[in-house]
Amino acid sequence: MKITILTLFPELFAPYITTSIIKKAVLQSYVVIECINIRDFTLDKHQRVDDTPFGGGAGLVMKAQPIMDAIDHVRQANSHVIYLTPVAPVYTQSKAKELSHYEHLILLCGHYEGIDERVLSMVDDVISIGDYILTGGEVAAMVVMDSIIRLIPGVISSQSIVSESFEEHLLEYPQYTRPEEVRGLRVPEVLISGHHANIEAYRQQQSLLKTMKYRPDLLKKAKLSEKDKKFIQKMVNDVEK
Fold this sequence. Notes:
This protein has 241 residues and is an alpha/beta fold. It has helices at 14-17, 20-27, 64-74, 93-99, 138-149, 158-162, 196-214, 226-240; strands at 2-7, 32-37, 50-51, 61-62, 79-84, 104-109, 125-127, 181-182, 185-186. The strands form 3 sheets. The chain has a 5-stranded parallel β-sheet with strand order 2-1-6-5-7, with helices on both faces.
C-alpha cells in the first residue's frame, strides 16, 4: 500500500512515521508513506494558499488551485482520495477495513476554516474522526493511517486483530498481566485456572458488560447468542432490582 498525505505541515509526520508499528511497516515495505506540501503548488508569489471566504465570515479558506494541482500531481489510476473533515460520517473500524484494501490512499488535510468546496469534485471519500473541531486534518490523518496500516497482513499478529474491540460490535474484554497481585488487587482467578472454556466464557461476559457500560449502542449491531442475550437480560434485571 502507498499513502500520500497532502498537508501544509509535512514536518508533523516525521516523528510519527519513524516510531513503533508504523516505522516497522515502512522498513519492512508493507507501506510506503509520502508527505506532499500543498504550498509547493500555489501560484501565488507570496506562497499564500488561503484567502477570505466569499460572502464574508470569520477566518480563511484554503484555495482550490493549490490543492487541485497537488491532487493531480500524485493521483494515479488506483488512487482513492480522502478529505479529513468534521463535516462527514464518523470513522469506524469497518471503514478502516474497507480502506485497507486500496492500493493508494491520498489523505487531504484541511486547515483554517476548511477548503474551497470545489475541491470536493476531486475527492472520493470524506471522513470525520469525531464530533469535535481540530486545528487541522493532520492529527485525523494520523488516526486514519494508524488504523489502516495495522490491518495490512504481516504488520501485526492476525490473532490480535480478530480479538479486538469493535470486531463483533463489542468492546474488548479486560486484560491483565504479571504479577498476579498489585496493591491488593488480584487477577480474576478464572484467568489463571488454565481452564480454557471457562476463560473464554468469562471473557465473553466481560466484553458484554463493558459494552453495556460504555457503548450500549453497539449491542444493537452485535451478533449475540441466546446465551449472550440471557446474560444481558440478567444484568439488566439485577440493575432494576
